[in-house]
Specification:
Blueprint lengths: L1 H21 L7 H24 L2 H24 L2 H29 L3 H29 L5 H23 L3 H4 L2 H65 L1 H13 L3 H17 L9 H16 L3 E7 L8 H24 L5 E9 L2 E9 L6 E2 L2 E2 L8 H12 L3 E7 L2 E7 L1
Parallel strand pairs: 1-2
Antiparallel strand pairs: 2-3, 3-7, 4-5, 6-7
Helix pairs in contact: 1-4, 1-5, 2-3, 3-4, 4-5, 4-6, 6-8, 8-10, 8-11, 8-12, 9-10, 11-12, 12-13
Length: 422
């Protein structure tokens, strides 16, 4: 009987230590494997000495000092995550209760004794350990990369279960003789943890849906911006074709004039002029994409009766991609134009002033547009409750942060100012 009990004690010790290590995301080199095996041997030796020196009850009370605390320290040294190492030890201890509960169930069903309980625990140790390592450990290890708040939420039940077990069963007999508060404590903890889990999961799902919607909108903006550039390029190519074929156009017009078809000649001239004008791109700088974007928005502003002044000095090659450049300039110009259109609808003056240049490998952009004074800001970023708006600002911020640049939004004297450096 004593031999089986001692063997069961050794098995549960190995079970808990192996499982604690499996819950930590450690790159197991040969050196670390041998180190862990040596530490486990030392801890088992300490347990043996304790069992030899003290009675069983005293050893149970000393178990945290001779096993759990040293194990958590060693795992913390191996994976550099000391808080998570403590959580992993508590979680492994909680999983050890599976062995005990399964054996108690079999003893209760079979009307067995303590020997049957020890034998059952020995039998289920290896299969249960392998199942937990294969199916539970990967998911548990992934939580070590979450925020501290998530790790605390995950570790709440293991920590409280550990403390409750030692306080009510090992350090006292409250588990057997305590009142209803003691008996219902863990049920209360599980219920509370479940509710917190549900609320947190719902909130994270809501945030994830919002982020996915914003990402989809940003992707659509990028696709639309790139498509607009291609359309502008096609218009420019078409205008170049018309200019190249000017001789043929003149011959046709001349033929119309010679044959007295003056109205037909005039209509043809107006048609050709309109097509060429529609594809006209102003050369603000050397960069073709910048010229295309600024020309398109300048034309839109002109049609809305909004005064616009653009000054650009940007080379052909920039440190950012053309798509990123399109997102930055298009969103900034779109927001400026949108604000000015609202002012024009209220018969208020509106204008836009843009300056952009490259210096020492960095791109600097400043956009100033007329606006109202009541623009709300949140941590230095303008916000809006208008449906479908605000995504452009977020896309600019995300782009600049991705390039480790700097952005600044401000309002001064009825002017909204956007400054970007990247």
């Amino acid at each position: 009987m004593m031999d089986i009990s001692m063997l069961n004690g050794v098995s549960v010790g190995i079970f808990g230590m192996v499982l604690s290590a499996a819950f930590c995301d450690i790159h197991w080199t040969k050196k670390k494997q041998w180190l862990m095996a040596g530490i486990m041997a030392v801890l088992m030796l300490l347990q043996g000495i304790a069992y030899w020196t003290f009675d069983y009850g005293t050893v149970q009370k000393l178990y945290p000092l001779i096993t759990h605390i040293p194990l958590a320290i060693v795992l913390g040294v191996l994976n550099r995550k000391y808080f998570w190492s403590v959580v992993s030890v508590f979680t492994a201890y909680l999983c050890c209760q599976l062995r005990r509960w399964l054996s108690l169930l079999i003893v209760a069903v079979c009307a067995g004794d303590a020997m049957l309980q020890n034998i059952t625990e020995l039998v289920v140790t290896v299969p249960l350990l392998l199942l937990l390592i294969k199916f539970a450990a990967p998911s548990i290890r992934s939580i070590s990369y979450e925020s501290v708040s998530v790790q605390c939420q995950f570790g709440l039940i293991p920590v409280l279960g550990y403390g409750f077990d030692y306080v009510t069963r090992i350090y006292s007999d409250l588990a057997l003789n305590g009142g209803p508060v003691i008996a219902e404590f863990m049920s209360f903890v599980c219920s509370t943890s479940y509710l917190v889990f549900v609320l947190r999961t719902s909130e994270e799902k809501r945030i994830r849906i919002q982020l996915e919607q914003a990402q989809n909108s940003l992707n659509l903006q990028i696709v639309q911006s790139v498509r607009e550039i291609e359309l502008l390029r096609e218009s420019q190519r078409q205008a170049s074709v018309y200019r190249h074929d000017l001789r043929h156009h003149m011959q046709y017009v001349s033929g119309c004039l010679e044959s007295g078809r003056l109205e037909q000649a005039q209509e043809y001239i107006h048609g050709i002029s309109s097509e060429i004008e529609a594809g006209k791109v102003v050369a603000f700088c050397e960069n073709e994409a910048v010229n295309l974007i600024f020309s398109a928005f300048a034309e839109r502003a002109k049609k809305q009766g909004i005064a616009i002044k653009i000054k650009a000095s940007i080379p052909k090659v920039l440190p950012i991609s053309e798509s990123d450049l399109c997102v930055l300039l298009s969103n900034g110009m779109e927001n400026a134009l949108h604000a000015c259109v609202k002012l024009k609808e209220n018969a208020l003056p509106a204008d836009i002033e843009v300056s952009a240049y490259e210096k020492n490998g960095k791109l600097f952009v400043q956009m100033i547009n007329s606006c109202t004074e009541d623009i709300p800001f949140d941590h230095g970023i303008p916000v809006t409750d208008e449906p479908g708006h605000g995504i452009g600002i977020r896309s600019i911020c995300a782009l600049v942060e991705r390039h480790h640049g700097i952005y600044n939004f401000s309002v001064k004297d009825g002017k909204f100012i956007l400054r970007v450096s990247l």
